[in-house]
Amino acid sequence: MKQFNKKIKLFGLLFCLIASSAFAQTRVTGHITDSATGDAIIGASLLEKGTSNGTITDFEGNFVLNVTDLNAILVLNYTGYTSQEEPLKGRSKVDIALKEDNGLLQEIVVVGYGVQRKSDHTGAVGTVKAKDLERIPSATIEQALQGKMAGVYVSPASGEPGVGAIIRIRGTGTLNNANPLYVVDGMLLDDASFVNPQDVASIEVLKDASSTAIYGNRGANGVIIITTKSGTTNRKAVFTLSSFYGIQRIAKKLSLANGTQFAQMYNELPDVDTLPNPERFGAGTDWQDVILHDAPMANVQLGANGVWNKLNYNISGNYFNQEGILKETSFERYTGRFNGVYPILKTLKIGANVAYANALRNTVGGNIGGGMYRMPPIYAVYDSTGKFSDPTKFGQSIGNPAADLFYKNDQYYRVHRWVGTVYAEWAFLKDFNFKTSYGFDRHNERFYGFEPIFMVTSSQLNKVEHTTRDTTQRRTWLWENTMSYKKEWEDVRLDLLAGQTAQEFTYKSRHTIDEILQPDGEAISEWAMISYLARANATIMERYLFTASLRADGSSRFSKANRWGYFPSVAAGWNISEEPFMRGQRVFERLKLRASWGITGNDKIQDYPSLGTIKEFLYSSFGDTVQQGATLVDYANADVRWETTRQTDVGLEFSLFKGRFNAEIDWYKRFTFDILSRLNIPDYVGSGAFPFVNAAEVENVGWDFTLQWRETRGKVTYNLGMIMSPVKNKVIKLNEGKPEIFDALTSQGDFATRTVVGLPIGAFYGYKVAGVFQDQDEIDSSPHFDKTAPGDFRFADINGDGKLDGFDRTYLGSPIPTLTYGFSAGIELFGFDIAADFFGVKGNKVVNAKTLSRFDTPNWETIWYNNRWTGEGTSNTVPRVTNGGPPNYSMSDFLVEDGAFFRLRSVALGYSLPTRWLSNIGMTRARFFASGTNLWTKQAYSGYTPEFPSQNSFSAGVDYLNYPMAKIVLVGLNVTF
Fold first, then answer.
1. Do 168 and 254 sit in the same domain of this protein?
2. Do 573 and 665 reside in the same domain of the chain?
3. 826 and 681 within one domain
4. Is residue 306 part of a domain?
């Protein structure tokens, strides 16, 4: 590691000594902002009138342009704003405010290590701007992205407050970690949970290899670039205040059997003491009402931006609080941010983007959700003596969920996190720019759990009071040095970039119980990486576009022989609408064809795969003494190398009807190879520590469609949008020693998924139900399992051998949607703004694993009560009530349900007061709004929601009864003064 640090210091020194003098020019500098909000405009286009000399603004809205003289006129353009001419009149520094015009799609896109004109861009990029985030407030960045972009699938990881979401960009391309890379103000991160959405200026999602290859080994799963708000040039500080308050309620409540229905079904179980007179139990207790409640959420944000003593700054502070709909759960977060730029010289500036987050997430121990679902409705919360009621007569594994809620609610996660970048940027020799930046991420997390002594039943108790404390530290630093060269000639625009980066990550964790360090309670891990990158963009005659990039990454995770990976990309575009033969036609306002190819990698694997690792543990018994020992976790494989993705993309962009209608259509093929997979080794080796090998291959082929209509008629502006993303996922190859991978274990010991060649990752696997046996004669004349009785499932003999066994299991569907789609609509008139977003998925299945508990549970859903088999001819779809054993417990398509849904993701109504009303009280903007989230969903799935978390790609789409989803209604205001 010392040699590594010496190397990066040497490379950094070489970059800092590249040039020694600046060349004086007729230089104009300035800052471009939004006239209404004062926010900096990233990527606004400036052109010296009568010439081809131009530039675009940077991440802070600043620009530098060399002009012929100081009497020139600047022409400014930015889509969505009115074009404007600004005479210099001898000024070398100008600050310009653009007025919104509600025009075309965004003209500028943020790309890796810079910004680029959309007309010049050859890749596939989706964009969400600050205004979109403001209309529908969200707690996290991930929530804000759902249904906003084609090819970007966002699924909530849980309905629990403070828990993020799962994002998949253009399908699932690996058997391992498929999460995208986040880049927040230039800092490369694995998550953006610390980011307050109200601090965000724009979010760009890089989807194709031409866009992501510049990030090399971390770009295979896509890249999400988050740019936070920068300061303005206002000498007087501009303050912003945003606040909202809302109420959450469970989005869908399950219809469970009441007390009478439960007693009737319970009496049908074999070998039980029946409950006489079931009608005496009446409606009973709906335990969902006991455990769930309506919960508030609130948010307050205060920000300031302006200029102080040449320091361009943006400062914000935020407080967010969300109680969970499951009692005793909550999430509280404080965030603060400082973004600043200080010009030391006309050609030299320094800056910083620093954020702090302090978050507290309260959770509850025990299986509260499962208890809420399974607790018998014939019981009240308390018995006649005032103690928690005891349901163990109806299942020893069932505990009173209200008792768990009372005794196990002292559990929380506390996070302190600092993330930021500091940088210096030097413009020299007219067209060169050098930037050096240092990024850091200091992430401290602590878990505290206390459980007192208590006893509800013989199986729901805690005999010894104990306290659990877990601490985790993550430390990351990133040093980047880049040099850019931008030059424009009469018919050629050239943009070159070269750079070097170095990054190091360390991880430490500690696990104690009652202040005693556990034998396997400490873990330390670290990795380091050094990289070189280069990119060239050329635009010829505004028609012909070319992009090429190359990144080389060297990682400490791999052996010396496989340490380096190389990730190239090439792309070309053709602005057909700029061709002479297109002049005079009135159909296309814009027409562009583009294509790209590139290679990216995936480094989201465990550390030290090329080295053997061991782990300490207890329970090695020698005689009567328990000893501490160690076991091998992974065998070494020095040949392990990068997972690699090769992607091809062909895209068409066009604009019709004078720019009112815009469309982007992309076809892509992602082929991922050398995927890390475990290699089965013989039992005689004496260990189950299977080594990693590069063996698997996965393919995703799909389309991205983005369509938008936006028009202004008088004082009315309206927009309509649609996104659609069909995709097919298929496993091409698995490790020869492991031709199938089973996962997603059910409560009855079956695996719900099986990954094999030719099918999607994590495909569902089991028996097909052919009906319900009505009598013993049917059983005797058909293949069946032992102990099958009338009222049990009849399974299909798939291979036709006259018997039922594991060879009759088959493919039952995939958890991966084959289509995601969304619709949006909005209108602005007379100060009012209305917006709505719809989102849906099709083609996927889900496994209702909690269904297995219906066969012997102390409660059932009413659909079971109404459709169960109770005698010959009563049902051929739902089996009898049983209390254990096959065949009804076996994994089958009876557990597999349609996972498709269509949801009103969000709707909002806002009203902005006229500016003439505000000027007398010192305000420039005041908007009041009301919004709703998840208000309506159409779904076939019988559970709470068909969206639920998964531990890995193999177990996606399996519902183990997770935290329910909430619908939210809130009101708020946005004020600028």
1. no
2. yes
3. yes
4. yes
Token pair recorded at residue 711? 């028009």
Residue 845's domain is classified under what CATH number? 2.40.170.20
Q: Residue 789 carries which side chain, given as an amino acid letter?
A: A
Are 254 and 113 found together in one domain? no
Range of the domain at 92: 26-101
Residue type, 722: M
Q: What is the pTM of this model?
A: 0.87
Angstrom distance (rounded) from CA 753 to CA 945: 20
Please, what's the b/e burial string for 107-135 (b: 16 or more CB within 10 A of its CB; e: otherwise)?
A: bbbbbbbbbbbbbbbbbbbbbbbbebbbb
Establish if 558 belongs to a structural domain. yes
Q: What is the pLDDT of residues 792-828, one digit of tens each?
A: 999 999 999 999 999 999 999 999 999 999 999 999 9
* Total residues belonging to the chain: 977
Q: Looking only at Cα atoms, what is the longest distance across the chain? A: 101
- The enclosing H or E element of 401 equals helix 401-407
In this structure, is residue 21 part of a structural domain?
A: no
Distances (CA, A) of 583 to 578, 586, 587, 588, 589: 8, 8, 11, 10, 10
**Of the candidates 31, 513, 515, the residue with the CA atom closest to the CA atom of residue 231:** 31
Instruction: Let me know if residue 877 belongs to a domain.
Output: no
Q: In this structure, are residues 708 and 719 in contact, taking their beta carbons and an 8 Å threshold?
A: yes
Within 673-818, where are the H helices? 776-780
Chain segment 826-875, per-residue pLDDT in tens:
999 999 999 999 999 999 999 998 777 655 556 788 888 899 999 999 99
Q: Comparing C-alpha atoms, which of 827, 744, 953, 923 is closest to residue 240?
A: 923
Instruction: Indicate the residue type of 206.
Output: L
* Contact between residue 606 and residue 637 where contact means Cβ atoms under 8 Å apart: no
Cross-strand partners of 976 = 240, 925
Residue ending a domain, choose from 78, 101, 124: 101
- Look up residue 472 and give its amino acid: T
What is the CATH number for 60?
Answer: 2.60.40.1120
Query: Is the domain of 66 the same as that of 176?
Result: no
Name which of 80, 226, 43, 228 is nearest 145 in CA terms. Answer: 226
- pLDDT, one tens digit per residue, over 893-938 is 999 999 999 999 999 999 999 888 887 788 888 999 999 999 999 9
- The 10 Å Cβ neighbour count of residue 269 is 17
Q: Same domain, yes or no, for 376 and 428?
A: yes
340 contacts 314 by C-beta, under 8 angstroms: yes
Phi, psi for residue 2 in degrees, rounded to 5: -65, -45
Return the percent helix, strand and coil in the chain, to nearest 5.
Answer: 10, 50, 35
For residues 113 and 183, what is the distance between their CA atoms, to the nearest angstrom?
Answer: 10
The closest of 694, 603, 700, 524 to 177, measured between CA atoms, is 603
Torsion region of 202: left, alpha or beta (phi above 0 gives left; psi -120 to 50 gives alpha): beta
Beta bridge partners of 395: none
Same domain assignment for residues 206 and 252: no
Angle at 651 between CA 650 and CA 652, to 5 degrees: 140
Within this chain, do residues 185 and 262 fall inside the same structural domain, yes or no?
A: no
What's the CATH code of the domain at 169? 2.170.130.10
At residue 509's C-alpha, the angle toward residues 503 and 512, to 5°, is 175
Cα separation, 890 vs 767, in Å, equals: 8
Q: Please state the three-class secondary structure of 108-147 as a single string.
A: EEEECCEEEECCCCCCCEEEEEHHHHHHCCCCCHHHHHCC
Q: Identify the sign of the CA torsion 451, 453, 455, 461.
A: positive
pLDDT digits (tens, 9 = 90+) for 211-249: 999 999 999 999 999 999 988 766 678 899 999 999 999
Question: Could you give the CA distance from residue 350 to residue 497 in angstroms, rounded to a whole number?
Answer: 20
- Which two three-digit tokens encode residue 932? 């709703």
Provide the domain count of the chain.
3
Instruction: Give the residue from 43, 66, 101 where a domain finishes.
Output: 101
The gap from C-alpha 22 to its chain's centroid, in whole angstroms, comes to 44
